[in-house]
Amino acid sequence: MKKSFYSSISVIMLLLFIVGCGDIKGEHAAYEKEFFENGISIEYKLSEFVEESGMYRDTIHKLEIDPEKSALVIIDLWEDKAFDSLTVRYINPLVKEFSDLGMKIIYAPSIKPQNKNLDIVDDGVFFYDYELMDKYLIEKNIKNLFYTGTDTFYCVLDKPNGIYSFQSRNNDDVRLFLLENGVTSFTKEMKQASIELLKKNGVGIVGANKALPNFPFKMKTTTNLLAKSKKEVRKGNNFVLIFKGDRKDSDLERFEKELKRSRIPHGVVKNNKMFYRDMEISSYDFIKLLRDTNTYNLYYSGFHLNNEILWGDFGLTSLYIKVRYNGVKGLPWPYFITDLTFIAPSENIDPDLEKVTIINHYRWAYNITSKTLLSGIKNAESKSISDATIPNNN
């Protein structure tokens, strides 16, 4: 898993300051303007695990940045009435304020047209669909990216120029921030869950002094944990990933023993390293393994659903990007094992609510219980053996 150099200091909530005659407090980016020679002093939040409390907690940090080496990235702010208010009330003021500071403005829409209400600055740059902005950032020596747009749970994370995608293919020279009032999701909890995921992985969350009261989220979070749970195992080859951490769980250990006893193919991931049949497997070789074995169903279990299982090199987001944007064929359909995926608790969201939000709303994945999985595989094997022993009467 790629970690930014500043992730160790946990961070986020941005305050920019510029002091001068006639300057006023910015409404939308929680900052006042105050120049410090070449840079701007900012304050932001990250999240780090605290052993004493057994949960992730926010810490606030400060940093001085150079506006000329910074850019605002607007991801998939589509032509949709649901995004009109966000565009006019929050993102357009951000565009103006960041542009006035001398930051680059990057428009990165994919698939659909941008919202017609979005302000376009004269020196803004555009990267359409799956076109990458990396070369431009190198040429302009950009060191700080501030993200806004929709949807925080999906596109802002995994689109080619989104946060996870960019971080996974670049080094730690570029710091990544999310402007909390410049993003939305389908549900309130989806936005909360994605922000918690980002903070744990070195992305600074920039707060604002103007909240989003009664923002019209398009959906409500499905709170039934088994709402999308499958009742049977699909035909085809299966592979199980077990993500292990410092904590142990007796049910997970019994599950692993049953996989071994039943000779169900499975791998173990710990500290972002994967082991299969006592051999370490790279992320590239893992994809090759899935294709070579014609794996049809891939099951995720272990620690933690709201971190490594989504964010790691062997996690769901990485797999989705390979299929959706990199055109890798022959990869399996992913499932969460509902009863054997565990949450890393944080102080800002109820862990049960966070789990049900991810289980029911993270894109592309189904879910299944460990009991259904094990019994389904055994039944399929029994049927295959039975079919193979039917005498040929022809």
Notable features of this structure?
single chain; 394 residues; alpha/beta; Rossmann fold; 2 domains; 7-stranded mixed sheet; 6-stranded parallel sheet; 16 strands; globular; disordered N terminus; disordered C terminus
Describe the structure.
The protein is α/β, with parallel strands linked by helices and 394 residues long. It folds into 2 domains: 198 residues, Rossmann fold; 146 residues, 3-Layer(aba) Sandwich (Rossmann fold). Helices cover 28% and strands 25% of the residues. It has a 7-stranded mixed sheet, sandwiched between helices. α5 crosses α10. It is globular, with a radius of gyration of 23 Å. The termini are far apart.
Gap between N and C termini: 57 Å
Any idea of the CATH class of the largest domain?
Answer: Alpha Beta
CATH architecture of the largest domain: 3-Layer(aba) Sandwich
CATH superfamily of the largest domain: Isochorismatase-like
CATH topology heading of the largest domain: Rossmann fold
Q: pLDDT average, as an integer?
A: 87
Number of domains: 2
Query: Which percent band covers the strand fraction?
Result: 25-35%
Q: Which sequence of strands runs across the widest sheet?
A: 13-12-11-10-14-15-16
Q: Radius of gyration, rounded?
A: 23 Å
Count every helix, treating DSSP H or I runs of 4 or more residues as helices.
Answer: 11
Helical/strand content category: alpha/beta
Question: pLDDT below 50 for ≥5 consecutive residues: which ranges?
Answer: 1-37, 383-394
Shape summary = globular
Helix content: 25-40%
Largest sheet: 7 strands, mixed
- Counted beta strands: 16
**Element string (H = helix, E = strand):** EEEEHEEHEHHEHEEHEEEHEHHEHEH
